[in-house]
Amino acid sequence: LTDVGEIYSRLLDHRPVIQGEIRYFIKEFEEKRGLRELRVLENLQSSISERTQHVLPKCEQAMDDNLNEVFKRLQVANARMQRLQEKEHEERKLQADKLLAREEKHVAHWEEFMREQQKKRAEVDEEHRKAVERLKEQYSEMEKELAKYGSF
């Protein structure tokens, strides 16, 4: 029986051999992978140091130069806008003053027109009163005249 177990284990049980192959494969894979990852990390480090030493300062300088230029332009634009706003404010004030003057002129004309109308109405009323008075006198005289002829 022991011979059968040994024969069985040699012929059919391949676990020790397979486990050895698996350990060898894992060892080789990890070594190669470790070296590949190490190279990738070294490349990343050199790329980062390159950017830190050369690219970043250039970008900062360009940004500073451009921001200063933009700031100056914004200051000029702001000054122009303030001048435009002042001119617009002055123009509005001038227009408002003109409108107020025109309104005052219209009010003065209207008041003058109304005084003239009152004066004309008073004149017409006076003429009407005088005409009524004349007519009353005329009719009164005509009645007297008729009264003289009415006695026939």
From TrEMBL:
Q: Respond yes or no to whether keyword Coiled coil is given for this record.
A: yes
Can the keyword Iron be found in this entry's annotation? no
Q: What is this protein called?
A: Biogenesis of lysosome-related organelles complex 1 subunit 5
UniProt record similarity statement: Belongs to the BLOC1S5 family.
InterPro entries, A to Z: Bloc1s5 (IPR017243)
What Gene Ontology cellular component terms go with this record? BLOC-1 complex; transport vesicle
Pfam families per record: Muted (PF14942)
User: Where would one find coiled-coil regions in this protein?
Assistant: 67-152
PANTHER family from the UniProt entry: BIOGENESIS OF LYSOSOME-RELATED ORGANELLES COMPLEX 1 SUBUNIT 5
The UniProt keyword set, sorted, is: Coiled coil
